[in-house]
Amino acid sequence: MPLRSLYPDEDFRNVRKPLRDGFTALVNLEELVSVRDELYLNVDERGREEAEIWATCWPKLRRLSLYNVDLNLDTGFLEHLAGVPLLESVVFTRPDGLYEWYDPTTWRMPYSAIDIKAAWLDALSANAYNGGLKRRKDLSIMFVSMPEQIPIFDEHEESWEKIDPEGLICVKFAGALAPSSPLFEQTRGVQDFVRGLALDGTLFDANMGERMDLHTIY
Asked: Its domain of life (predicted)?
């Protein structure tokens, strides 16, 4: 469902509100995979911030996969994630907001400026401080992209032994290999790769991505 093919200020037939209402009603949903966007269900044509449906309406949600979310700490995304009480596993496909620098000639953006484990623990603390439901820190986090865009957390790994000695926060990677082709074709290939894993029921498998898995996508 291409939710970003129609924006709120273009929605003259009032298509988006019934869509948002429909997703809101899925109160028993336990798994959601959004292949082409971050589950973009905004309806305010003036662009005002709206609550994330997956964070506020689906109390039974356990597994979540979103495309191109902004993980920058200023967005509050991780705090929203920390408010999902039963969440076990999350997949971020080609996320934004992680990278310290990138090479515009190759789109190589490996070095993460964000310590994802520390950021998750901070989000849990902030959520609890603001009156949110306290939850355990256990979470499986997998990053999926072309190999050259997979984030590298090497500089943070030493601190991980201190802040997560039991390894309850599992960080994994899956690189989708593609032949030399325009970026938009590689992007579509990664999306199709995630869709395929979701359809065959393996996207959230415990062993998926444990060792920087590389997969040929086409």
From this structure: Eukaryota
Long-range contacts of 71-74 (CB under 8 A, 24+ apart): 71/95, 71/96, 71/97, 71/98, 71/114, 71/116, 71/119, 72/96, 72/97, 72/114, 73/97, 73/114, 73/119
Distance of CA 76 to the CA centre of its chain: 13
Q: Residue ranges of the alpha helices (H) in the chain?
A: 16-24, 53-56, 77-82, 116-129, 154-163, 183-199
pLDDT tens digits for range 112-154: 778 999 999 999 999 888 787 778 899 999 999 888 788 888 8
In a domain, 65, yes or no: yes
Q: Identify the domain containing residue 47 by its residue range.
A: 8-200
| Tens digit of each residue's pLDDT (9 = 90 or more) over 46-79 | 878 889 999 999 999 999 999 999 999 889 999 9
pTM above 0.90, yes or no: no
Closest C-alpha among 24, 49, 54 to residue 37: 54
